[in-house]
Prior knowledge:
There is one protein chain. The protein is α/β, with parallel strands linked by helices. The protein has a single domain (about 5-155), classed as Vaccinia Virus protein VP39 (Rossmann fold), CATH 3.40.50. Helices cover about 40% and strands about 20% of the residues. It is built from 7 helices and 5 strands; from the N terminus they run αααβαβαββαβα. The protein has helices spanning about 5, 15-20, 25-35, 55-60, 75-80, 115-125, 145-155; strands at about 45-50, 65-70, 85-90, 105-110, 130-135. It has a 5-stranded parallel sheet with strand order 3-2-1-4-5. The radius of gyration is 16 Å and the shape is globular. The mean pLDDT is about 95. S-adenosylmethionine (SAM) binds near residues 71, 75, 92, 109 and 114. The site of S-adenosylmethionine (SAM) has 21 residues, from helix 4.
Amino acid sequence: MTKPVQARSFDAIAADYDAHRPSYPPALFDAVEELAGVPLAGARVADVGAGTGLGTARLHERGARVTAVEPGDGMAEQFRRSLPDVSLVRGDGNNLPLRTGSMDLITYAQAWHWTDPARSIPEARRVLRPGGALALWWNDGDPSVEWLVDQENRMR
Ligand SMILES: C[S@@+](CC[C@H](N)C(=O)[O-])C[C@H]1O[C@@H](n2cnc3c(N)ncnc32)[C@H](O)[C@@H]1O
């Protein structure tokens, strides 16, 4: 399967993804605020590859003015069902549908790896205001949980 085809694979299972994928802990957003030097309350944030809105919801709860960006039809549909009051625009990280210098923070929750960094890095720089920040995060297996370690080993 090519990367663009894999990148669209979420759309067929968007409702299940939304129901079963774990969200993100408050400590993550504390760390983003501290490392980026951007308080989330009132910040203009683009959450790119927003999917069904798991990360977007947490940013929104903390008072960020979030614009979600999502390329996939199924994920975007589910996003609109889950977060009808949060702004969502269709597009992707390689060609952001956002104005130059318009964001304090750009976030990618488990989505950056789907972009082409040769395009997504210049796009992030364009859309961020001077001194703005790009925050990328992924879930990692907890090495103290035995069944997770076994699963990692089987996959390897
Ligand atoms: C693992 S999901 C993460 C969704 C959400 N951020 C979350 O934390 O649950 C990856 C998302 O990236 C999106 N995606 C795929 N290609 C992308 C691209 N080039 N730029 C931005 N997002 C992309 C997919 O459609 C999918 O919604």
